[in-house]
Amino acid sequence: MVARSDARRLRSRKGTEADLDKLLDLCDNIAGRSFCALADGAVAPIISTLKYFRSEYIAHQTNGGCPFDPVASTLFDAVGAK
Fold first, then answer.
1. Which of 11, 25, 54, 62 is most buried by its number of CB atoms within 10 A?
2. Pairwise CA distance, residues 23 & 67, whole Å
3. pTM
4. Contact at 8 Å (CB) between 61 and 13?
């Protein structure tokens, strides 16, 4: 399956922006067109994150990992946490 190999490429940090465009195209083809009642809910987070956080997807690919410090990006204060 083409989509499965694209997902593997993205997870292994070998993806390209063209793969992101293909992922969005696949989601657009599923949303509102599937017989499955859960399909729209399944693709909505992908469409939303590609729309609002595309630069983070690209940074993952170009930097070879997450561009954010996991501790600094949390919503809670680490001081006093156990």
1. 54
2. 21
3. 0.69
4. yes
* Higher local confidence (pLDDT), 3 or 30: 30
Q: Which two tokens stand for residue 32?
A: 């509102």
Give the separation between CA 27 and CA 21, rounded to whole angstroms: 10
Alpha-carbon span 62 to 45, nearest angstrom = 22
Token pair 């922006």 in the structure block, residue: 17
pLDDT at 1: 47
Tokens of 14: 């070998």
Q: What is the pLDDT of residues 52-81, one digit of tens each?
A: 999 988 888 887 777 777 777 777 665 665
In angstroms, rounded to a whole number, what is the distance separating the alpha carbons of residues 70 and 68? 6
